[in-house]
Amino acid sequence: MLQVVIIGSGNVAQHLIKAFLQSAHIQLVQAVARHPEQLSHLLPADQITSSFIDIKQADIYILSVTDSAIAQVSAQLPFTGRLVVHTSGSTGIEVLDNKNRRGVFYPLQTFSKNKDLDFSTVPLCLESEDVSDYTTLYTLATALSKSVYSISSKQRRALHVAAVFVNNFTNHMYFQGNKVCNEHNIPFEILQPLIQETAAKIKSLAPVQAQTGPAIRHDQQTINRHLEFITDRNQNAIYTLLTQSIQETT
Amino acid sequence: MLQVVIIGSGNVAQHLIKAFLQSAHIQLVQAVARHPEQLSHLLPADQITSSFIDIKQADIYILSVTDSAIAQVSAQLPFTGRLVVHTSGSTGIEVLDNKNRRGVFYPLQTFSKNKDLDFSTVPLCLESEDVSDYTTLYTLATALSKSVYSISSKQRRALHVAAVFVNNFTNHMYFQGNKVCNEHNIPFEILQPLIQETAAKIKSLAPVQAQTGPAIRHDQQTINRHLEFITDRNQNAIYTLLTQSIQETT
């Protein structure tokens, strides 16, 4: 049974703790948090500490803290030679202090505070400096998820950029659609089936095959009519740029 | 039982024909198509005609042709005073020739040739000039779908713009994410759970609440690192503009 200590109390840390507690192959030894009360709904008090000197022995230490705190927190750990991993998509493995064996355990998903998630479908992106550490990480990962990948720091950087496009920017497209609806007294729910089908399509079609609409059809009349209709400056700039990008690249 | 004639053989027309054939409350009298062979897998030959003079009597004539052909085709119909509707999101009701009673029957969904769709969840946006025609359209719509809306031409124009954002432009975000993956030998499937969860979130959260990522966090260090990483000109412009738009509007 793999013994795990998790350091952090944010969104990702909490989802990981829940997943660890549900696994028969993982023993969550301890959680380390500056504010233990943030985890009190998940763990008994004696399993949480705010003091680094009380950190217990484990096979893996998972640092799930803000990207900018990874270097500092990893340097403060009161031990050396153990396996320490971070969970960040946009941070290289080398940011971890090299007094310990380093690795990455990056769950590629968007985590919401109040929405439970089936962890078995979350892609886990693993990296380590040492082959035997990779085996340990792989054992941990496969205990949680069916979807496990070996991803280098450079690939992970690319993946994080790709995730910004398909998640952050897609959500902003939903925001703009919602804004248009609000301004014309149309319930946003009317767009829900279209949003869901757009995502569902991409399971079986490549994005280049799934592309529809006035831009890809080079339907300049409809494009002009839309641009006349859009008065918002940001919406106008987005419409113009994305129409051009669709026409140039797909 | 409502009697319907459909004019057109494209994607939307074919999905409508399938839905009509499945409804116990609608009698599809005839389909009119310049190329009858495009519908031969759906209907027997005697139910399809390519000649306007053979068009039969019906309660509703549904014009499901290219936007730019609506005016001309509606003018060519060899009868007057009947209910004729188009299915276009971006075309006003007044584009139909006024020798007949005019209406709109706009299914707000993305239709793929080779992917069947549950029509009962497709929002149908109705408009008519006459109250009793609205009742007829409403009877037709509720026979197909649980989701029926009264939408004016101006609202429909807004809705079509909103649909471009949440469908066409979202798909282009998937395209860009796919491109980044391809360039770094990462299987695109790794992004699928994120794409599906991004769409699923929006069922219970408003887009402004669901927004995450470096832009909304004003995490300039990550934004700069991403922009250094992105070499593609279109991707760079999109990343910059959408980051700015997220920061200004949400």
Description of the molecule:
Two copies of one chain form a homodimer. By secondary structure, chain A is an alpha/beta fold. The first copy, chain A, folds into two domains: 2-151, 3-Layer(aba) Sandwich (Rossmann fold); 156-249, ProC-like, C-terminal domain (N-(1-d-carboxylethyl)-l-norvaline Dehydrogenase, domain 2). Helices cover 42% and strands 15% of the residues of chain A. Chain A has eight helices and eight strands; from the N terminus they run βαβββαβββαβααααα. Chain A has helices at 11-22, 70-76, 131-144, 153-183, 192-201, 207-210, 220-229, 233-249; strands at 2-7, 26-32, 48-49, 60-63, 83-86, 101-107, 124-128, 148-150. The first copy, chain A, has an eight-stranded mixed sheet with strand order 3-2-1-4-5-6-7-8, with helices on both faces. In chain A, helix 1 (11-22) links the parallel strand 1 and strand 2 (26-32). The first copy, chain A, is elongated. Chain A starts with a strand and ends with a helix. The model of chain A has no long low-confidence stretch (mean pLDDT 96). At the A-B interface, helix 4, helix 5, helix 6, helix 7 and helix 8 of A face helix 4, helix 5, helix 6, helix 7 and helix 8 of B.
